[in-house]
Amino acid sequence: MRLPLRLLAATTLLAVLGATPAVAAPEDWQQVGTDARSGISGIAHEGAGALVVHDNKRTGQQRLSRLIHAEGPATVTPLSWTGAEPIDLEAIEAVPGAPGEYLALAARGIVYRIKVDGGTATVLDYSPLPEIGEGDDFESFALVSRDGMFAALWADRGSGTDRPATLYAAPLSFASWGQVLFGAASRRVYRSAYPTDAGTRHISDITVTDSGRILVGSASDAGDDGPFDSAVSDAGRVTLSAVGRVRISLEAAPKVLGTFPGYKIEAVECLPGTGDALLGTDDENAGGYVRAAPYCGV
Question: What is the pTM assigned to this prediction?
Answer without folding.
Answer: 0.89
